[in-house]
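Handout, section B. The chain below has 102 residues.
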Amino acid sequence: MGELKESWDALSPGVQKILRMQCEAIDADPETVNFRADRWWTSYTWPEYVELEFQKKLSNELMHDSRLRRDVMCVPSANKKMCEQAASEWVFLYGWTMKHDT
């Protein structure tokens, strides 16, 4: 457990905030996810509607939190389109695996 704590503590506050939000979206405990593992984002799944809700929430957080923008955006603008793009990119790169109904 100590290694997971060290892994978490090494992340910037903004990334921690996003990962906490992402875990909350699926009722996962961020302190039990090994964010150092290869392809850690495949540890959990979420349905498309949860992913879309998370992306919208992240975009809104980015528009209203300048520190968060500075932590995760190359050009930390509060412009709505840029925040939406950054949220979309985060979900594409680090979003949980999509759960498909079979």
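Note. The longest strand covers residues 45-46. Compare this with the example in section A.
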